[in-house]
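Milestone M4 deliverable, item 7.
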Amino acid sequence: MTQTHPELGMQVKQGLAWSSVSNLVLRLGSLAVGIALARLLSPEQFGVFAVALTVQTVLMTMADLGMSADLIRSEEPERKAPTVATLGLIAGATLAGAMAFSAQGTAELLGSPAAGPVIAVMSCSLFLAGAGVVPYASLQRTFAQRKLFIVALVDFTVGTALVLLLIMLGWGVMALAVGRLISQAVSLLVQFQLAGTPFRLGFHKSLAPAIISFGFPVAGANLLSWALLNVDNVAISRLAGPVALGYYFLAFNISTWPMSALGQVVRSVALPAFARISSGRRKGSFATLLGPVWAIALLAGVMLALLAAPLVEVIYGDRWLPAATVLVWLGLFSSLRVGFDLAASYLLAHGAARATLFVQVAWIATLIPALALGVPLGGIVGAGAAHLAVALVVVAPAYAIALHRNGSDLRSALHSLWPPFIAAVPASAAAAVTSLTFEAPVAALFAGAAVGAGTYSLLLWRWFSLRLGEVRAMLADAEEGPANGTGTPGPPSVPMKITCRPHHPPSEGATVTVIITCFNYGRFLRQAVESALAQDGVTVEVIVVDDASTDDSIAVAQELAASSHQVRILRHTSNQGPVTSFNDGAVLARGEFMVRLDADDVLTPGSLQRAVNVARAYPSVGLVYGHPLHFTTSELPRPRLTTKAWTVWPGREWLEDRCRNGLNVITSPEAFIRRSVLQTIGYQAHLKHTHDMELWLRIAAFADVAYIHGPDQAWHREHAESLSSMGIDELEDLKARRLAFDELFSGPAAALPEAPDFKAKAHRALANDALARASHEYDRGRGRAHKSEALAALADELVDDPEGLEVWNKYARRRALGPALASQPLRSGPARLAGRIRHELQMRRWHNSGVF
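Output delivered:
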C-alpha cells in the first residue's frame, strides 16, 4: 500500500479547480437549456418527463452496486477492476431489463401513464452506467477532473443538440429520453478513452464477496439518497397531478443549481481526499472542510429563498411563478444537502458504508409520512416544508452521531456552523429590504443578491479566510508527510485503518527472540520453550530468564540449553519480578522481532511466521497481535491456524480507541514486537499489574498496530498459581489502569500533540467504568458499602464533572433508591441482564476484531 502521498495537496487543488470550472460551465449551459425547454414545453410535459426521470435516477444509483466507491478507496484497484467490470455489467443489465419490463405499470402507478414509453427507452441507460464503473472510478481516484470535465462536456453538448433538434421535429417528451440515452453512450466511449482503461472482464471469487459486501450498503445508501430526493415527485404526482409536479420539478431544479455545483465539487474530491489525509489530521478533517463549504452553501440557499419570486419570473416567465412558493423551502433545504454530502464522503472514505446506509434509512422512513401529511395540507409547498423539517430534525442529528462514532471531532464541526449562520441574519434582512424597494423583477433580483451577498462577505470574510488557511494547512500536512521535530519517534505512517487479505512477503532471514520469564514454573517451562523452537519459517532465539526459582526450573532450562544452541539462560540470584526479568532478557535479544512469553503459556504452530508476514508487509507496524486461546485443562485445545485477514491501524488511532474505552485488549503471549521500536521507546515500566498494558499503549504512540484475524496466536494457560488468576478486585483494577495511562502520558508520549485529549478520554472512560461498577453494587444489594463509595470517589478524582458522565444518572437513581430497593429483581434484573448481554457482545467483538 502507499504509505505517503506527496502530491495530495496539489492533486486536491487541481481537482477542485477543474471541478469548479466544469460545474460553472455545465450549470450555465444547463440553465440556458432549461430556459429554452421551459419555453418549448408545458408544465404537464415537464411533469411527464419528471416521472420518467425519477424512475431512471433511482435505479441508476443501483447500477454500479456501490463498486465505484470501493475502487476509489481501494489499495489494489487494478486487481479488482475486471471483477468490478463484470459485476457492473450484470447489475446494469438486470436493472435495465426490470425497468423496461415494468415501465408502463410503474408509470400508471405514479399517476402518469404517458411516461411509460419514456421510462422504457431510458432503461437502456442503466446498462451503460454499469459498463462505465471502472473508467469512472479510475478518473475519480486520480483526481482527473479535467478529463471528467471533457466527458461531461461531450455528454452535455451531444445531449443538448439532440434534444433541441428532436423537439423541433415534434418528438415532444420522448426527445429528452432519446437525447439523454445517445449522449450517455457517446460519453461512455470518451470516458474509456481518457481513462486509458481497457474493457476487461473477469471474476476473482476471492475478491467478489468483499466488493459486494462493501458495495451493497453504499448502493443501498445511494438508492435511498436518490429516493429521498424523488419520493416527493411520486407523492406530488399521485396526490396533486402532473401540472403541480411540473411546477415542483422546475423549483427543485432551480434549488439544485448552486447546490449541485458546490456539491459536485465536494463529492469529486472529498472521498479520495478524506481517504488519503494523514491519520493525525483525520479527527479534525471533516470540521476543517465543513466551515468554508457550509459558508458558501448557506449563502446560496438563503439567497434562493429570499429572491425566489423575481428569480423564477426573470428566468422562466410569470406563468411559472407558482414554483416560487416552494423554492423558498427547497433553497434552504439544499444548503443542508451540501453538508450531508460532505459527511457521507467522510464516512465512506473511512469504510463506514453501513453508517451512511442507516442514516438514509432513517431519512426516508421519516420523510415518507412527512410528505403524506404535507402534500395534502399544503400541496407543493407542504412537500418543500417536509424536506426541510426532516433534514433539521432527523438527518442532521443522525449524521452527527455517525460522524462522532467514526472519529470526527463533532464539537469543532458544530463551531464551524455558527459564524455563517450569524452572518446570514443581517445579510438576509439587507437582501429582503433591497429587493422590496424595486418593482421590476430584474432589478429586485440583482440588487437584492448584490446587497445580501456583499453584507454576508463583509461580515464573514476574515473568518472564511482563516478557515481556508486551515484547509491549506491540512493538505500541506498530507503533502509533506509526518514531521519529527521533537526528538521522539515520528508518528505512524499508515494513513488510515485498513483491513486486507493476507499476503506473504518472504519471511526467510527473520529472527525472532522469544523471552520466556520463569518463576517456579519448571513443570510448564519445557512446553513453552519447545513451542518456540518448533516454529516454522523463522529463526528463533530463546532466552529463558529464571527469576530465582526454588523449584526445578533452572534444571529444566539447563537441560533445554544443552540440547539446543538456540536456547540461552539468564539467572537472577534474587527474585526481581516479571518486569525486570523481561527487561533484562530484552537487553540480550538479537532478533529483529521479540515475543514476551510467560513460562506457563505456549505459542501455537506458525504463530511467529504469521506475525512476521504482517510486520514485513508493513514496516511501520511495531506491534502485531492476534487471538489468545485461553484454557484450563492439561491438554492443549485445538487451535485455529488459518489467517483470514489483517487489520492495520495507524498507531495513534488504535491508542485513541484504547483511551476511549480504558481497557487492555492484549493478554500478552499473543503480542509480537519489532525490537527496534522497543529499543527506541524503552522497555517495560515498573508497574505492578499493568506493565504489559502500558507497553502496548506506548508502542502505539510511535508505531502502527496490526491484528491477525482468524488464527489463535498463543495458548494462555489459566491455573490457580498464575499471575492473571491471582487477580485484583475491581477498584484495584481501575487504579492499575489509571496508573498505566498516567505513566504513558508522563513519558515520551507526553510530547504528542494529542496527549492531553487522549489522557482526558482515558480518565473519563475509567470514571464511567467506576460509576457503572458502583451502580452494579447497588443492583446486588451492596450499595453504600465501602466498595461502591470508593468506586464513586475514584470517578470524582478522575474527572472534574462526574455529574456530566453518561452513567452518572443511573448511579444517582440507585443511590436515591438505596440498596434495598435498587436490588429488587424487577428493578435490577433488566439492568443486570443488559450488562451480561453487553459483556457477551463485547467479548465476541474482541474475539473477531481484536478490540472491544
